[in-house]
Design brief:
Binding site for iminosuccinate: 26, 43, 114-116, 131, 200-202, 217
Order of helices and strands: HEHEHEHEHEHEHEHEHHEHEHEHEHH
Oligomer: single chain
Low-confidence stretches: none
Number of domains: 3
CATH architecture of the largest domain: 3-Layer(aba) Sandwich
Keywords: 4Fe-4S, Cytoplasm, Iron, Iron-sulfur, Metal-binding, Pyridine nucleotide biosynthesis, Transferase
Distance between the termini: 29 Å
Strand order of the largest sheet: 2-1-3-4
CATH class of the largest domain: Alpha Beta
Number of strands: 12
Family: Belongs to the quinolinate synthase family. Type 2 subfamily.
Largest sheet: 4 strands, parallel
Function: Catalyzes the condensation of iminoaspartate with dihydroxyacetone phosphate to form quinolinate.
Radius of gyration: 19 Å
Bound molecules: 1,3-dihydroxyacetonephosphate, iron/sulfur cluster
Mean pLDDT: 96
Subcellular location: Cytoplasm
CATH topology of the largest domain: Rossmann fold
CATH superfamily of the largest domain: NadA-like
């Protein structure tokens, strides 16, 4: 159980009811935002929810590519995103020209695009993936040569599952996952020798090699709930520690490194959220011609079964 809602949080809930709005929050959002949301989840869960909700308004607490995904799959809804400047440093690394260059270099190879990218990039892609389904997405493709953008770490992790496929990747990365080093993990293991080390696939290959389990953020939440282990070293953005502790009050969670802090994920405040619900702004809108192209790639991903 979380803490009782504050007055401001109660006002937000009331406004959400009046506005027929659903509040979606990513697992890295600050605790007070997670508490007031209708649903928290990883990128895949939030995309699925955005595609299926009956609410008239989706208020997205996360980073911009996530709100864009909601606008791509739900064009008839108003997608409110309280702070437009909350971007993603990985998504910023790739431009449409980079994708065109890769397509020219590997003709016929389908482009698999991690959802952590902006709508223009999705629009020139064949299919999207998240950290929870990247392996299933690549498995579902008949081609033997794949272009994977923009995360080289997720691409290299996915490659481990395929002897018969070659994944060509763009050299983007998440600075808040790529920052985790072997030395950091060794230090954490020394301090907590009984702990299970969970890593996000955005971590470097040499860090993945040390992991006991590799999971998306919600995958880590599920794993920690179901595991018999009592202690965990968490190799992802530090915001995940809050729901981990909340769901497992009798277990211990240690950040693999305090450096794993995504500033963009902490921008939206309760005050921003309240103001956005009052004004139903700012909103994320994507041009229809771009949206239609991006939708094909996202919808194709959503058809892939989650195992
Ligand atoms: P998840 O899809 O695992 O929640 O990850 C999103 C993200 O931004 C990771 O950095
Ligand atoms: Fe982007 Fe990394 Fe932040 Fe996730 S943690 S939103 S990939 S910068």
């Amino acid at each position: 159980m979380g803490k009782p809602l504050s007055e401001l949080q109660q006002e937000i809930r009331e406004l959400a009811r009046e506005r027929k709005a659903i509040i979606l929050a990513h697992n890295y959002q600050p605790p007070e935002i997670q508490e007031v949301a209708d649903l928290t989840g990883d990128s895949l869960e939030l995309s699925l929810k955005a595609a299926k909700t009956d609410a008239e308004v989706i208020v997205f607490c996360g980073v911009r590519f996530m709100a864009e995904t909601a606008a791509i799959v739900s064009p008839d809804k108003l997608v409110v995103f309280p702070r437009l400047e909350a971007g993603c440093e990985m998504a910023d690394m790739i431009a449409v020209e980079d994708v065109e260059e890769l397509k020219a270099r590997y003709p016929g190879a389908p482009v698999v695009t991690y959802v952590n990218s902006y709508v223009e990039i999705k629009a020139v892609s064949d299919i999207c993936c998240t950290s929870a389904n990247a392996v299933n997405v690549v498995r579902a493709l008949p081609e033997k040569e794949i272009i994977f953008i923009p995360d080289m770490n997720l691409a290299r992790y996915t490659q481990r599952f395929f002897k018969d496929k070659k994944i060509h990747y763009f050299e983007g990365f998440c600075p808040f996952h790529d920052v985790l080093t072997v030395e950091d993990v060794e230090k954490a293991r020394k301090a907590h020798p009984e702990a299970v080390f969970m890593a996000h696939p955005e971590c470097r290959p040499e860090v993945i090699d040390l992991a006991d389990v590799v999971r998306s953020t919600s995958g880590m939440l599920r794993y920690a709930r179901e595991s018999q282990a009592r202690e965990f070293i968490v190799g992802t953005e530090v915001g995940l520690i809050y729901p981990l502790k909340k769901q497992n009050p009798d277990k211990e969670f240690y950040p693999a490194s305090e450096k794993m802090l995504c500033k963009a994920m902490k921008i939206i405040s309760l005050e921003d959220l309240k103001k956005s619900l009052e004004t139903l702004s700012p909103t994320v809108k994507v041009p229809e011609d771009v949206r239609v192209k991006a939708y094909r790639a996202v919808a194709r991903m959503l058809e892939i079964p989650r195992t």
